[in-house]
Amino acid sequence: MVGRKCLPTNPEKDSTFVVTVPKFQEQTGHFDHASEVADLLAVAPYELDKGQKGPVFDRITQGLTRHHAANCTEYANMLRLLKFDADEEHALEDVPFLPARLFKLLDLKSVAPDAVHRVLTSSGTGGQPSRISLDAPTAALQTRVLTRIVGDFLGKSRLPMLVIDAPSTIRDRTRFNARAAGIMGFSMFGRNITYALNDDMSLDVDGVVAFLERHGQAPFFMFGFTFMVYQHLLGAGAGRVRGLENGILIHGGGWKKLVDLAIDNEAFKQRLKDETGLGRVHNYYGLVEQTGSIFMECEAGHMHCSNFSDVMIRDADFQLCPNGERGLIELVSLLPGSYPGHVLLTEDEGAVIGEDDCSCGRKGKYFQVYGRVAKAEVRGCSDAYASAS
Amino acid sequence: MPMLQPVEHSESGSGPIFLLGNELGQVRPRVPFDAQVLGLLAELSARLRKHAEARSMPDVQTFAFWCRKANLQKLKAAHDDHKARLGLGLVFHVAPGNVPINFAFSLAFGLLAGNTNVVRVPSRQMAQVDVVLSVLGDLLAEPDFASLAEMIALVRYPAGDAFTADISARANGRVIWGGDETVAEIRKLPLPPRAREVTFADRYSFCVMDAAAMLAADDKALGRLAEGFYNDTYLMDQNACSSPHLVVWKGAGKLASVARKRFWDRLQPIVGDRYPIPAVNAVDKYTDLLVEAASDDGAILNINRWRNDIHTVELSCLPDDLETLRGRFGLFHEFTTMALSDLVPLINGRFQTLTYYGIDKAELQDFIIGNGLTGIDRAVPIGQALDMDTLWDGYDLIHTLSRIIDLR
């Protein structure tokens, strides 16, 4: 296993955190989201332990809850009817979580319509797409925080980047989707961006060989959706791509298809290592509703909360699960300023493994994601035709 | 005399599978409540009640209890209108996909009315269907009942198969369960001009409780009431067409709020013990609740939650499109009123079952009939919402599936 300290070119690593710890704002009546989070940006993204992170984190989430309650009528209605008074002090676990799915059903925003800078959409699994309204400050925070988190794995300088996808995926606007958004988002960490697949989704062997001849002797960045990596580096491309020893792969987009193929994360990584030489592989997990504050898989195979995020696990009665117990994943992000998406309940299953003591050296809670919670068989009498088809 | 031939299907290779009765003979209707038919159903009842696997299935036991000999005799007497009747002939039934035992009720209604029945069972395999099928198959192989075998065919095939069109074109009657969408799909396929059709569309059901009666109930009665309410709702994830989505409390506001609390507090441990809600359903229920809360325009007085077991939305007024107030997995709307007549303008043909407690029959009769409501086909005490019977959705299924011979 590659230890964290062995990772190249991360200037953050050696800075003496203790002396650079910023002076977080004194608590005042006024809550300035951007500047509160900016203070956190001055710290390495995985450096704060529970005691350091807790008070800052609580203050910002509380500020966000109040801000959204004051600026989003729907959110205020929900809090009022759930008998939650945002003006009182609350533990984070008591802040009402919104099902992430709510953003598919309601247009929730905490800014005036003309302040909306961009609307993120994602179809997820069928049906209505989520609509996430970003104002300029929230969009900027997302980029800055993503840069900090990914930088912890890739280093600060841009690396040559090999995208495990076809150029047409982002060229064709009619196919603009989560895959394209992911590629565009992560492209800011790369240079000499090269696509590994042809537009017909076949492996561009010559192109990949040329990339490796130019860049393969030093660390380079690889990015792709999990299933694309599986299909094209391990499946159709099996045995055709080697010499990825210096690659650092970041992949995401869900395990659903891989679960169907009965391959787990460990087997996936082992096969990548055996068949391509690729040893540094990081899965990432996150919601389009909390873009930016993603969770990265460390060298020990654990998903990590950064300074900007937290995770809680709840059982089917929404009670908190102790560490190790499997349940629904609740995610907290400090970034959503323009929509009330800072505390969300997913429909994924996971378990918290520990906090501040992962063998990779990063602080914060670390956890495991098992994938989407099983669909239940629903009883009732009105869908003979639908369920029979 | 029409003959029913097994239909050949070659295009998909996955045509209908006859689970029972692939060699249907002549279609020869019998009189309603034919003695042999009663004998078969009574024996089916007796065997299902002794069958080891069937005994573990509450819905199969409900069916078996319903078609016990004594009840069949009662039904026979109740349906006797002193007219000469015969079954229609060939009746095609489309059973609902998510209520496994309904195919058996539909088949029994068709048989009791005197018909030859082709029943399409859900394409998904269900243990309840398998058990009834196996016991019924054994019975029909016995000499006593062999002559009834040609009146029963159970088929399974995927939606969209040409069998539905073929059989519909020859049916004297068609019974469609499964709601609006299924009815619309199957209605595209024509029946012969004289054929009759019974359709079970999407319906809306609600509950009325008298607050004073609730407060007067002793603990035992309250327990029975809560159990009955649990059976009406949670047993079917509140998705059955006869499960209530709205509870109307009749009485003064203060009285009603005490009664309400007494009732839900009593229901909660029952739900907690017997209804382990899957996480995904808990999220669905919570999402439904928040969508309503988010869009509240002042109509919501309160949201009450008994853990994830019961959620209620207390309303100060009811919307014109009352039937849009729905809940799943134990999400109920509540409204308090002094007089049922407040509801009159809101009731339409979508309304099916009214379950009640503490309201007398004369008042219900006045409410439904006296007001000339276009909806509410059933008013039954709490606990009986799911009790399937020959009177359903406003139909008398025995009479609808048989014809009168005017003999003078």
What's the tally of helices of chain A?
13
Strand fraction of chain B: 15-25%
Major sheet characteristics of chain A: 12 strands, mixed
Class of secondary structure makeup of chain B: alpha/beta
- Helix content percent band of chain A: 25-40%
Mean pLDDT of chain A: 86
CATH architecture call of the largest domain in chain B: 3-Layer(aba) Sandwich
Number of helices of chain B: 14
Instruction: Calculate the mean pLDDT score of chain B and round it.
Output: 93
In short:
Chain A has 389 residues and is of the alpha/beta class. Chain A has 13 helices and 14 strands.
Main traits of this protein?
heterodimer; A: 389 residues; alpha/beta; 12-stranded mixed beta sheet; 13 helices; 14 strands; globular; disordered N terminus; disordered C terminus; B: 408 residues; Aldehyde Dehydrogenase, Chain A, domain 1; Aldehyde Dehydrogenase, Chain A, domain 2; 2 domains; 7-stranded mixed beta sheet; 6-stranded mixed beta sheet; 14 helices; 38% helix
